[in-house]
Write a structure and sequence with these properties.
two-stranded parallel ribbon, single chain, about 260 residues, about 30% helix, Collagenase (Catalytic Domain), 8 helices, alpha/beta
Length: about 260
């Protein structure tokens, strides 16, 4: 257990649950090339406005799988707070038949995402990121969401619904709120995906995740064991260390690697 992590009763239950390998889909990263990149590969393009002055979040969903409005409203609010986009951030919703309604892996998510993208991630002065909401589950059905490259994530609502405990505390809606922001946090490079933080806040047993239960980047947010919180309030905010990292990346005091674009 990381020194200094505060453990509540809900956290204790989560910590003794089976550990998850991670919600960053690493399949075939070596084959992605400069077009796809890795999660965090467009961090600087989001944090800087010298070239990309606006941003579009494409939200493609299987019929019956439209995201909760509370989730997408929170997502826009969180991205507005950290991404420097003076011309604004727009969310575009598209109902889509993904054909696959069964088992997904990272390559399935990536291939489907790129097939459905309306633009390349960098087009003119606009940065495009995408989230798909398919029917079905990830190959590890305890995974609620996954980031698969520099611009693409998937949220698995069937698994989120299954993660809701019998008390509905937390509710499926609350879980979706946290998971959606968590996965976009990976597109922002959190935690230590494309940089090394001067703050000691990465969980040593769950790389790419926070050791702070109050951060939306906390490792347990990725897993169906989130239902063991027995609380209807889950973190949806980047914590102070997350925000310090993003500020350092934005002003150049923290070195950022593996970028598809640099200012």
């Amino acid at each position: 257990m990381e020194k200094g992590v505060r453990i509540s009763l809900g956290m204790l239950i989560v910590l003794i649950s089976p550990m998850l390998s991670g919600c960053i889909g690493t399949d075939s990263f070596t084959d992605l090339g400069l077009r796809h990149g890795i999660p965090g590969g467009l961090t600087l393009a989001c944090l800087d406005d010298s070239t990309y002055t606006s941003m579009v979040i494409e939200i493609d969903y299987e019929p019956g799988y439209q995201p909760e409005s509370s989730s997408t409203d929170l997502l826009k609010e969180r991205l507005d707070s950290v991404c420097k986009k003076p011309q604004g951030i727009e969310l575009i919703f598209t109902e889509t038949d993904f054909v696959n309604e069964d088992i997904w892996d990272a390559n399935d998510v990536r291939a489907t995402g790129w097939e459905e993208k309306s633009h390349d991630p960098r087009d003119g002065s606009t940065l495009y990121w995408q989230v798909i909401f398919p029917a079905g589950v990830y190959e590890d059905d305890s995974v609620l969401g996954v980031a698969v490259d520099a611009s693409t994530i998937s949220i698995f609502k069937d698994s989120i619904d299954d993660a809701e405990n019998f008390l509905r505390r937390p509710s499926a809606e609350k879980i979706e709120n946290s998971v959606l922001i968590h996965e976009f946090g990976h597109l922002l490079g959190l935690v230590n995906t494309v940089y090394t933080s001067p703050e000691d806040h990465e969980d040593s047993e769950h790389p790419g995740h926070s050791n702070n239960e109050d951060s939306v980047m906390y490792w347990a947010i990725e897993s169906s064991s989130i239902a063991n919180f027995f609380d209807n309030e889950l973190p949806t905010e980047f914590d102070i260390d997350d925000k310090k990292d993003l500020q350092g990346l934005a002003d150049g005091t923290i070195t950022c690697t593996d970028q598809l674009w640099k200012p």
